[in-house]
Amino acid sequence: MRLATFNILHGRSLHDGLVEPERLRDAVRGLDADVLGLQEVDRNQPRSGGHDLAAVAAEAIGAVAHRFVPAVVGTPGEEFRAATDSESAHDLPQYGVALASRWPVERWLVHRLPAAPGRSPMPVGPGKIVLMPDEPRVLLAAVIGTPAGRYTVATTHLSWVPGWNFRQLRRVVRALRALPGPRILLGDLNLPARVAGFATGWRVAAGGATFPSPDPRIQLDHVLLDPTVDRRVVEVTTPVVPVSDHRPLVVRLD
Questions:
Q1: Cβ neighbours of residue 184 under 8 Å, at least 6 residues apart?
Q2: Where is each Endonuclease/exonuclease/phosphatase domain found (predicted)?
């Protein structure tokens, strides 16, 4: 079973600032993931050509099931509001997470995570800090019928606000108890591995710097395995790809 998590930066390349679906398709195809969790995914956004980037990625891995769930309606950094569970029916600019699987999905779960209150300091350059509002977040989970049995696999992108992301991760674990084990969480958690493991009590499947992509120095992207996952990790990669400021994290279980 190959699992991958990838914050795609709405498909943008750091080299030329462009969003080209074919470039994203090639990057995702190379991961050869059986189950893929994506963060910072655009749909109907002018900045990414109005493309459905979750559908592009799902096609690239040959997924039989995929779903995109918006966290916000509008454009982050500009004008946006929290999405609701009915937003998928509207042709509005949206931004959120997606999950794609080469195996059938038996059940989906969506759990919304509110933004941190007020504004929080964010570094935006050398010696420069601005107060920024946080964005609401969302957890997307699927019960998947794999050749090794039924698994719950989820993805999320947690807040960058220290402390608040820790609380969100605890809420994620509680929400996932509604679905059967074994459970696997893929995502950009904006937390170091040690803290993510402590917050959940789950096994951190892989270590490897993923951010920033040209010269990774920290790991924000994780694959977490709950205590009922009895599979060994036999391969971990963080491949160089032509899109995003994150590198994907790929984990193969025996």
A1: 3, 35, 151, 152, 153, 154, 223, 224, 225, 226, 229
A2: 4-246
- DSSP state for residue 31 in the 8-state scheme: T
> pTM of whole model > 0.85?
yes
DSSP 165-181: HHHHHHHHHHHHTTSPS
Ranges assigned E (strand) in 75-199: 80-82, 94-101, 105-113, 119-125, 128-133, 137-146, 149-157, 183-188
Report the candidate in 164, 183, 163 with the shortest Cα–Cα distance to residue 173: 183
At 231 the pLDDT is 94
The answer, yes or no, to whether residue 127 has pLDDT greater than 80, is no
Residue 123, preceding peptide bond in cis (omega within 30° of 0): no
Residue in this structure with the two tokens 């959940």, named with its chain if needed: 200
Distances (CA, A) of 94 to 7, 13, 74: 16, 19, 6
pLDDT at residue 202 in the model: 98
Q: Which of 111, 172, 201, 103 is nearest to 143 (CA)?
A: 103
Tokens of 93: 């600019």
Residue 121 is predicted with a pLDDT of: 83
Judge: domain 2-253, CATH 3.40.50.720: no
